[in-house]
Amino acid sequence: MKKEIIIFGGIILFSILLTILIYYLGTTPKEERGNNIQKQNLSFEVYILNNEISKDSILSSFEYAKKIWGIYNISIDLIKIINLKENLSLTERNRLFDFNTFEENCSEKYNPLIEKMTNYSLNYKIIVLDKKNSSNAGRGCICGCRFVMISTQDKLLGFLDFTKLNLAHEIGHILGLNDINYGKRNLMNHRLFLKSFFSNFLNQTQVNQVTSSFH
């Protein structure tokens, strides 16, 4: 009886996942995809805290983000990957992922911690660390828009890993885009059910915002 229940549960789960896949593959956004004529470039250093994710894993996420932004003629390049040895307290980790960080706290609380971790680098930075008990999986354009953070624990049900999509999304904030809650498959939609793996769409208005951030 127990075996039959497990098999039945597996069939139900497979059917749900297949339905979601068909839904996203079989539907397209109503808007036309944006187009960028002039090629533009953005380069990042990657900082991995205490080897909390493998270099291969972050390289895979970086290449995924690079592929998405390449659709819009924006080259995302990797300068180097740096392993950090940093003993952050739980309070400090929560502060890094806290959405209630206000700009007036940047000089006192936020930037000193980022600068310490990245040795005062002036390059754009991607910081990768375990978010611990924070409900947020990433941070984008705050305190000067010079860095993004992504969590090593951006998973659903323990196995659906959204780290790649999350990185591409957070880079969008560096490029001047805000979160939205409309537009199926839009990269910046933070309310997508299951964060569709096919969320690589940007409309022309968004692309124009991105290109203007380079001027």
Tell me, briefly, the overall form: globular
The CATH architecture of the domain at 37-177: 3-Layer(aba) Sandwich
Count, helices: 6
Low-confidence stretches: none
CATH topology of the domain at 37-177: Collagenase (Catalytic Domain)
The largest beta-sheet arranges its strands as 2-1-3-5-4
Strand-residue proportion = 15-25%
Q: Going by CATH, what is the homologous superfamily of the domain at 37-177?
A: Collagenase (Catalytic Domain)
Distance between the termini: 66 Å
Mean pLDDT: 80
Description:
The structure is a single chain. This protein is α/β, with parallel strands linked by helices and 215 residues long. The protein has a domain of 141 residues: Collagenase (Catalytic Domain) (3-Layer(aba) Sandwich), CATH 3.40.390. The chain is built from 6 helices and 7 strands; from the N terminus they run αβαβααβββββαα. Strand 4 and strand 5 form a beta hairpin. Helix 2 packs across helix 5. The longest helix is centred in the N-terminal third of the chain and has 24 residues. The N and C termini lie far apart (66 Å).
Topology summary:
Elements lengths: L1 H24 L14 E10 L5 H16 L3 E11 L5 H7 L9 H13 L5 E6 L8 E2 L7 E5 L3 E2 L3 E2 L1 H12 L29 H9 L3
Parallel strand pairs: 1-2, 1-3, 3-5
Antiparallel strand pairs: 4-5, 6-7
Helix pairs in contact: 2-5
